[in-house]
Design a protein that fits this description.
single chain; alpha/beta; Rossmann fold; 40% helix; binds nicotinamide-adenine-dinucleotide
């Protein structure tokens, strides 16, 4: 296939490109605006056969249209992805996550090509910590921070274009990813790098927030299956079936790295913090043959190895606060 992958210098997009080109004889054009979230380690993607990089903004309709001519499918990972940044200022989130997706929708409609859009379980909002249920196919959207509101908006735009113009589009909503190449602003890389450098590890509130963790490899294998065999118009939920509190995640990392628990520092909670994300994988995805393959503890060990091997590039997490590139 000829794929235009957007946001492929970021965490999930870069893992997807590596795995897809390893397993398929595809041509991939990676379109990325190279924001602070692009990982410099991903420069080595250019050594892969079938790979081309173009620096561009997905909200630039003319460029996206010219780049996408002749492609079979646009796979959209490009987004502003950090909730804390969206609370500080939502402007860029509206630009990339809503205006950008609208630009892609016009392109795929005009060129008659397919779209797979990568979305999040955060569109469903917060699930009661004690509830004996998970979000599932058909659960209503209830985004509760600017980031999740922009992701929900883009999902709705895609559904509306599918209904109105009969475009060929699929969406996946996945739970929290971890694994190699994630930006150190996020919980797991930040914890590993701070622990390595003997810095305090900030935890919001009491750390009791529950997330459903999935290794990025399992998310990418779901996306690949959907691209190859998914049904137009379908939304696929991808869950990790691995609910862990933030405090437990940090304690697991400290234990594996043999670092003291007194590095943990409880800080004022994020405003409007969602307490629990939990999502049931769609039957339609299981029917395509998808299964999670990496358990959380084994995946965490492998992830820690990636950050230890590349700690000089990642630097220490404090430096990341002012941006990467
Ligand atoms: N990380 C998770 O746990 C998770 C879970 C579910 C869904 N998602 C979704 O997956 C996608 C990828 O997430 P990630 O964690 O890899 O994000 P990331 O922040 O690591 O990477 C995003 C990439 O997109 C690029 N980008 C941003 N705005 C752009 C624009 N306007 N034009 C072109 N490129 C642009 C950035 O430069 C960066 O390289 C996002 O849409 C996110 O909402 C993430």
């Amino acid at each position: 296939m000829r794929l235009v992958v957007t946001g492929g210098l970021g965490f999930i997009g870069s893992n997807f490109i590596r795995e897809r080109l390893h397993e398929h004889d595809d041509e991939i054009v990676n379109v990325d605006r190279v924001t602070y979230a692009s990982n410099p380690l991903n420069r080595d993607l250019s050594t892969l056969e079938g790979y081309t990089f173009i620096k561009a903004d997905i909200a630039d309709y003319d460029r996206m249209k010219s780049i996408s001519k002749g492609a079979d499918c646009i796979v959209n990972f490009a987004a502003e992805s950090h909730v804390d940044n969206s609370i500080a200022s939502s402007d860029l989130f509206i630009h990339s996550n809503i205006v950008g997706v609208h630009s892609i929708l016009k392109v795929i409609h005009e060129l008659g090509i397919r779209l797979h859009h990568v979305s999040t379980d955060e569109v469903f909002g917060s699930m009661d910590q004690n509830a004996n249920e998970k979000f599932h196919d058909g659960s209503p959207y209830n985004p509760r921070n600017p980031y999740s509101a922009t992701k929900a908006s883009s999902d709705f735009l895609i559904r509306a274009f599918s209904n109105t113009y009969r475009i060929n589009a699929t969406i996946s909503n996945c739970s929290n990813n971890y694994g190699p190449y994630q930006h150190p602003e996020k919980l797991i890389p930040k914890t590993i790098l701070n622990a390595l450098n003997g810095h305090k590890i900030p935890i919001y509130g009491n750390g009791g927030q529950i997330r459903d963790w999935i290794h990025v490899h399992d998310h990418c294998s779901a996306i690949s299956l959907i691209i190859d065999r998914g049904r137009p118009g379908e939304t696929y939920l991808v869950g990790g079936n691995s609910e862990v509190t933030n405090l437990e995640v940090v304690n697991k990392i400290l234990k594996i790295m043999n670092k003291p628990q007194n590095l943990i520092s409880h800080v004022t909670d994020r405003p409007g913090h969602d307490m629990r994300y939990a999502i049931e994988t769609s039957q339609s995805l299981k029917a395509l043959g998808w299964k999670k393959t990496i358990g959380f503890d084994a995946g965490l060990r492998e992830t820690i190895r990636h950050y230890l091997e590349n700690h000089e590039t990642y630097g220490n997490a404090r430096q990341w606060e002012s941006g990467w590139i």
